[in-house]
Design goal:
- This protein is α/β, with parallel strands linked by helices.
- It has a domain at about 15-75 and about 185-250 and about 345-405: FAD/NAD(P)-binding domain (3-Layer(bba) Sandwich), CATH 3.50.50.60.
- The chain has twelve helices and 18 strands.
- The strands form three sheets. Strands 1, 2, 8, 9, 10, 11, 17 and 18 form an eight-stranded mixed beta sheet that branches.
- Helix 2 packs parallel to helix 11, helix 3 packs across helix 4 and helix 5 (about 105-115) packs across helix 11.
Length: about 425
């Protein structure tokens, strides 16, 4: 995992509007648990919650604190499914996996309801919008495949898109009423409180620097000399994965997702812009996504550079997208600009690894981590409690990407090519 000193703090609208998180100790001394979890994001926290509720002793260790990474900096869009259509998922994994994937948003809202998490949950649906006529047939196929599986979905024409978004330029899209939104940092802190209440222990300022076999289990060493022994270990570090396990970091591309939030909209604007509080992402290869955020602010996000942004000029593409879809937003100041790292995989799928007995890893949510990580963490916890409970995705081998150290160069070139293809399509 990266050291806390190397993770650059970027102020976000979430941090500015979040309730105080749980008061947690920094790790010190020697500890033991049935299961050790490295990383206190959505995956780690939901795994801990499931395990603790099942009677296991659990310790979660995070380099900084719960929700500090992408789990507390993302767009808060709760989107079911994956990038692949249901028929394709059936062929790849079977209908059980497709059903799991389709139910991931349900898991988030059930956790919020069950544990009374105060995170502004709104189930206003997720809209996949298109500015390209060429994309509409594929969107209709995707919608129809989910509808055939019982999902509450519908196509939207240009007029419906204008009414539902208040934006310009959309030629159509589809809405999935299973989706919605949360305040992601408050959601992460709420999961931490729920895990603590169930009996888990969580440590902050706990940078894991070694993971070795010991006494039939595993020993974890921390940068300050603290130690932790456990029979099982779950590594849940996603876009902030470091060199703790050989080759794991090189299986994903840690891409910056950058976002902006305007000053609060007035009452008239809030009545016209996303009136049902749906969340939206567009269908281009390099997509933008937007929603109404805390205090009635209009938020826009998208793919950033592979270096951390240093100033407002690094957000010029997102600013332009915001003003393109919502010309009236030009008169609104941008109050917040921030970034977080998402983990992208070559096959656009999350990966579950078990490279050694007693070690489980999950990462690579490709921008859909709120719902998928929450559901997958619970499934991992259930599997570790009872191995007869199957994991929802097939295990994969750790396969580092060739010349991974050059990923900022080749991934940037790939993104540039995708932008050109997006531009050329009608």
């Amino acid at each position: 995992m990266p050291s806390s000193a190397t993770i650059r703090t970027v102020p976000s609208v979430w941090a500015a509007t979040a309730a105080p998180g749980p008061d947690l100790p920094a790790i010190a001394g020697a500890h033991r648990a049935d299961v050790a979890i490295i990383g206190a994001g959505f995956t780690g926290l939901t795994t801990a919650l499931a395990l603790a509720e099942g009677g296991a002793s659990v310790i979660v260790a995070d380099t900084v604190e719960p929700g500090y990474g992408a789990s507390g900096r993302n767009g808060g869009q709760v989107i079911p499914g994956l990038k692949y259509d249901p028929d394709t998922l059936d062929a790849m994994f079977g209908p059980e996996t497709t059903a799991f994937v389709g139910g991931t948003a349900d898991v988030v809202f059930r956790l919020v309801r069950t544990h009374g998490i105060d995170c502004d949950p709104i189930r206003g649906g997720w809209i996949q919008a298109s500015v390209k006529h060429a994309h509409l047939p594929a969107l209709e196929r995707r919608m129809a495949q989910w509808r055939a599986r019982g999902a509450d979905v519908a196509m939207l024409d240009a007029g419906a898109m204008a009414a539902r978004t208040g934006g310009t330029g959309f030629v159509g899209g589809w809405i999935d009423h299973r989706g919605g939104s949360v305040h992601p940092l408050n959601y992460a802190c709420g999961l931490a409180r729920a895990a603590l209440a169930a009996g888990a222990r969580i440590f902050r300022e706990a940078e894991a620097v070694s993971l070795v076999r010991a006494d039939g289990g595993w020993a974890i060493g921390f940068d300050n000399g603290a130690s932790l022994r456990a029979g099982q270990v779950v590594v849940a570090t996603n876009g902030y994965t470091g060199r703790l396990w050989p080759g794991l970091k090189a299986t994903v591309i840690p891409a910056n997702s950058i976002q902006v939030a305007t000053a609060p909209l007035d009452a008239d604007q809030l009545a016209r812009i996303l009136p049902a509080r749906s969340v939206v992402s567009d269908s281009r290869r390099i997509a933008n996504y937007f929603r109404i955020g805390p205090e009635g602010r209009l938020m826009m996000g998208g793919r950033g550079a592979f270096t951390d942004p240093r100033g407002a000029t690094d957000y010029h593409r997102i600013d332009a997208a915001l003003h393109g879809f919502f010309p009236e937003a030009r008169s609104l100041p941008i109050d917040f600009r921030w970034a977080g790292r998402v983990a992208m995989t070559r096959d656009h799928l999350p990966h579950i690894h078990q490279p050694a007995p007693g070690v489980t890893m999950a990462l690579g949510y490709n921008g859909r981590g709120v719902a998928m990580a929450s559901a997958l963490g619970g499934a991992i916890g259930a599997h570790l409690l009872d191995s007869a409970q199957p994991l929802p995705l097939s295990l994969s081998t750790i396969r580092p990407m060739p010349v991974h150290g050059l990923h900022p160069l080749y991934a940037s070139a790939m993104i540039a090519a995708y932008r050109v293809r997006d531009m050329l399509e009608r």
